[in-house]
Automatic annotation (TrEMBL):
Principal cellular location given in the protein's record: membrane
Protein's cellular compartments: Membrane
Amino-acid biosynthesis among keywords: no
Keyword Transmembrane helix: yes
InterPro entries reported for this sequence: Phos_transporter
Transmembrane segments: 6-24, 44-61, 81-101, 108-126, 132-153, 219-240, 307-324, 330-350
Family: Belongs to the inorganic phosphate transporter (PiT) (TC 2.A.20) family.
Name of the molecule in the record: Phosphate transporter
Lineage start: Bacteria, Bacillati, Actinomycetota, Actinomycetes, Kitasatosporales
UniProt entry keywords in alphabetical sequence: Membrane, Phosphate transport, Transmembrane, Transmembrane helix, Transport
């Protein structure tokens, strides 16, 4: 194994911590629709996803090479820069998990790395062409392509299936949905686990442990795969609820169409070395599936909040990464301050999350808005029981008083 300095060991541990947050942050990408439609029990779903994430980590290293060799100038990067980049990425992952928003762990990592690199070595150390062609353009194109493909696949499935809604049909689509969810998990491991492999490899190059241009060592591949698998098994239940119930309501055939479209897009991107956001792809697929069914709806308020988070991910992580790099540049004590800040912030976010626990027992529970004044007032009015209308009217509307009888004229006297 390569020789390690203390700062390099800290960077590797922090990178694996990011990989862990990536796992539970992105579990929803593979399993949210499968859980929401009832195709799999929540704990079984995340366990299956964790195993396939680990397997997927060994299938390719193209995305890892994009990060370690292509995005920034690896010869001018210090391990402290990578540590600062990871701080920005981890904090953004935790914040968006806390509010249940499916943002991109990939873009958080890219943003943190770009921000820290610019703060350390200037804009010239960032390869802008790689950033545009392999990060930004796929970020725009992938959800659109996956969404359109999912919408067409959903319409096709309803078209060929007609109105068949029997139990056998539902079981068939649920089986297909489980298979497609497994494919998404495999693709997620192939794409997202490689990002941590790439960042650790870049740190090893920066620390002089391996030669520039090297592929990720085997121990890096294994540790990254295990970290993301463990995070996946923990389950990011808050984001699973948003993706499975908060964005649209899916039937099994819609879930099958969404996950198949997403897996195809992710695997193709991994083969081409694109640092793709699986969150963007799956979110686009889910919305496409929601629009593909006649009468289906997409909750655009939730979609808008997700879009805002997507737009903020790169710049927000870059700012935190740049700030952390400025502090670590002050020396060892600066690096210690940043490490303490990361641990304290993570602990605070976790403590806040305990105020409203979301786990496998309530992840598919329907969320309802609190009743307003008018709703409360209407609910307080109880209609009269059936068959007692006359009695109710009698009780509430008094009968008119009887008119007095005309006086009898006195008898005539003779």
């Amino acid at each position: 194994m390569e020789s390690f300095s203390l700062i390099l060991a800290i960077v590797v541990v922090t990178a694996l911590a990011f990989d862990f947050t990536n796992g539970f942050h992105d579990t929803a990408n593979a399993m949210a629709t499968t859980i929401s439609t009832g195709a799999l029990k929540p704990k079984i779903a995340v366990a299956m996803s964790a195993v396939l994430n680990l397997v997927g980590a060994f299938l390719s290293v193209e995305v890892a090479n994009t990060i370690s060799k292509g995005l920034v100038d690896e010869t001018g990067i210090r391990p402290e820069v990578i540590f600062a980049a990871l701080v920005g990425a981890i904090l953004w992952n935790l914040l968006t998990w806390l509010v249940g928003l499916p943002s991109s762990s990939s873009h958080a990592l890219m943003g943190g790395l770009v921000g820290a690199t610019v703060a350390s070595a200037g804009f010239g150390a960032v390869h802008g062409d790689v950033l545009v062609t392999k990060v930004l353009l796929p970020a725009v194109a992938a959800p659109l392509v996956a969404g359109i493909a999912s919408m067409l696949a959903t319409r096709f499935s309803y078209g060929i299936g007609g109105k068949a809604e029997g139990e056998a049909t539902r079981k068939g689509y649920r089986a297909g949905q489980i298979a497609s969810a497994g494919l998404v998990s495999l693709a997620h491991g192939t794409n997202d686990a490689q990002k941590t492999m790439g960042i650790i490899t870049l740190a090893l190059i920066a620390g002089g442990s391996i030669a520039p241009g090297s592929n990720p060592p085997t121990w890096v591949i294994l540790s990254a795969g295990l970290a993301i698998a463990l995070g996946t098994y923990i389950g990011g239940w808050r984001i699973i609820r948003t993706m499975g119930k908060g964005l649209t309501d899916l039937e099994p055939r819609q879930g099958f169409a969404a996950q198949t479209s997403a897996a195809t897009a992710i695997l193709a991107s991994s083969h081409l070395g694109f640092s793709l956001s699986t969150t963007h792809v799956v979110s686009g697929s889910v919305m496409g599936a929601g629009l593909g069914r006649k009468g289906g709806v997409v909750r655009w308020s939730t979609a808008t909040r997700m879009l805002v988070a997507w737009l903020l991910t790169l710049p927000a992580a870059a700012l935190v990464g740049a700030g952390a790099e400025s502090v670590t540049d002050l020396g060892d004590w600066g690096t210690a301050v940043v490490a303490v800040f990361l641990i304290a912030s993570s602990a605070a976010i976790w403590k806040i999350s305990r105020r409203e626990v979301v786990d496998h027992t309530n992840v598919v529970a329907e969320t309802t808005e609190p009743a307003g004044v008018v709703t409360t007032a209407i609910a307080a009015v109880t209609p009269p029981p059936a068959g007692t209308v006359a009695e109710s009217l009698t009780a509430t509307i008094p009968a008119p008083a009887a008119e007095p009888a005309p006086a009898t004229p006195p008898a005539a006297t003779v």
